[in-house]
Amino acid sequence: MRKFILILLLLPVLAMAQKKSITLEDIYKKGTFRGEFVRADFGQASKDPEFKFDDLKDETGKPFGNPEAEIYNAAFPNLVLLKKGNEQIYRRSSKAFVYLYDANTKKLTKLADEKVLHPTFSPDGSKVAFVKENNLYIYDITSGNTTPVTTDGKWNYVINGNCDWVYEEEFEFTRAYDWSPNGSYLAYYRFDETNVKEYNMTIYDNAHNKDYRYKYPKAGDGNSTVDIYVYNVAAGTKAKAQYEQGDIYIPRIKWTKDDSKLVVYWMNRHQNDLKLLLTDAATGNSSTLYQEKNKYFVEINDDWWFLKDRKNYLFTSEMNGFRHLYLYSLDGKTKTQVTKGNYEVTDVNGVDETNRRIYYTMAYPRPMDRNLFVTDFDGKKTYQLTQGEGWHRVELNDDFTKFYDFRSDLNTPQTVTLNKISVSKKKVISASLEKTVNESAKLKAKTEEYGYGKAEFIRVPNSKGDTLNGWMLKPADFDPAKKYPVLFCNYGGPGSQQVANRFGAVSAWHQLLAQKGFIVVSVDNTGTGYRGEEFKKKTYLQLGKFEIEDQIDAAKYMGKLPFVDANNIGHWGWSYGGFMSALAITKGNEVFSAAVSVAPVTNWRYYDNIYTERYMRTPEENAKGYDENSPINFTDRIKGKYLIIHGTADDNVHFQNATQMISALVKSNIDFESAYYPNKNHGIGGQMDNTTFHLWSKMTNWILENMGNSNTQQAGTPAKQPRGF
Asked: Does CATH place domain 152-302 in 2.140.10.30?
């Protein structure tokens, strides 16, 4: 009996011991913690036809195989565009060989001998537009003829129908043309980047290497001259959109529901004055439809809807301090703020024009939560359709009678439910559960099997009187009598959010570090999103100042906790987060003992002008703001250990940032470690060549070796690479 009681007493210990240890192989090779994909299926027949490509042969007579992507024709279901040989260019752009397949005739037609970008069917389904070698073309399906809309395109000089690098990266689009609603017109961008300065990178190979050059305007540099043209498809003529030229941006063009009315979005270089110009497609003449000015900057996004009634448009704006919905009439006589309050609209899920309702997601009840709401066009009746603290991502059906709810929280994988939307006789709108579709049973079992820890939200006071949102993950076998090292995982850039009440905000890598004896912390500093305009834009003209002061305050707060090793607090980040880590080890040298910077900006003078100047203006206007907040200028302050990592072919945050930081470190006689990955871009990824696994192994072992104490595990030996990689 005594032996039996002893076994019972030991069961909790044995259970803990039996939990599997998370490995880097689990995360970056095996996909052990990959969740299940659930498609929002409303039981409707697919609008896209199913094609079989087994018997297709390409132009050489070889089997075509399965395409890499398919683009369907809404007007003619028998026609589909097929992509093969897709080649990534930058973050959002890629090119491929494109074929037109006719299922009725079994005919396969190659649109061009070269790879092309952005193939799209016209609204009536009779034509295909695409970009090839910086020119825009239209292919007529009936005749088989291809018509060049432009002929002056040339690499590093003129681009038609596609974005230059900085527009693609910072205005977040790459296809720079758009069909009118009926297909009568094709509006397109023309970028003249002749006078934009080049940046060159070496692409390393086994011979003499290659020199890659492209146009990249850094802070203070000149931009492409941008013109908007409207091409009349039937007549073959074009009109140039009329607007104020000069040092300006055109961050968007959008058609209204009127086939002859295009809206050109005009913005000054400071990005604090936005105008929507209602432009006549035939003449290019325009008038101001809308104007918004801001003492900081105006956010650009795709949240603009020109309604089918041809009388109104819906959009989001921060004009009153928080991101909310507005409904304006095209004639300017009616202006309605639809949503209100000290909460932010994060997504517009659907616009029901028939019943005059808008379905949208809000950061509510806390900035880290998300819930679905619906309101009428007048903003007078609002109903909450999902409830509680947590993260609700929703997809609605076409008639707004049902929605899928993908709900998770910080420690719980998603549960997917199908919900019914009901409208009572008194027009009260509510949602009810129809069925539970998936509860992530496999992933939950894995997190239990591997002993995932429970993260907790924390509230951290800063020295300015604000309270910062954060989360903390303690070691799996946490003992409050011990002292543990702390690793801050931070991004911190303008409008971002890492402290979110969703599963995945605390990653499997964070869990691995916790299992190895680290406290992992993330704190959203001043400048991050979903807490109102003033909190986000307080960093204006001095990127990095308030952000790193908040991280330092948070580290001091953590250092006072009885279970924290105050002499062993580190900081890790990537991109803007890498910039923050570099500031942590320099300006935060009194509290941060180690830092890992991955692909960091080290001086804002090296980064592109659209992003940097949005927050900093030009170096000529704001030299002090640049110089006082770039870590490259403070390397002499470093007392702790520092690892900097970069890809040599990073087209976004150039490898130059790392080389110049290292030069400053050498000049200051600071010991450091570095790692570079040849021919890798900003993501520094790769499965087949082992880059992803190597990178995360490098960082993990460095953290264990340089931040570990008696309560943490030692760094492991590098894993052998299996054959075949």
From this structure: yes
